[in-house]
């Protein structure tokens, strides 16, 4: 299964609670922090909520 590298590039300040929760569940909380997650429908849904705050790239193993 493919993996996604998710990096937070903008602040969550001023965002809605759902956006704060999505960032936290992805494992993000600071600008510049990056995590690698499986490409799953649940993760894609969280990415869609905060797409304007993060950058996503596909990585190979």
From TrEMBL:
InterPro entries: Ribo_uL30_ferredoxin-like_sf, Ribosomal_uL30_bac-type, Ribosomal_uL30_ferredoxin-like
Large ribosomal subunit protein uL30-like ferredoxin-like fold domain boundaries: 4-54
Keyword Ribonucleoprotein: yes
Keyword list, A-Z: Ribonucleoprotein, Ribosomal protein
Gene Ontology CC annotation, any one: ribosome
Family: Belongs to the universal ribosomal protein uL30 family.
Assembly description: Part of the 50S ribosomal subunit.
PANTHER family for this protein: LARGE RIBOSOMAL SUBUNIT PROTEIN UL30M, MITOCHONDRIAL RIBOSOMAL PROTEIN L30
Protein name: Large ribosomal subunit protein uL30
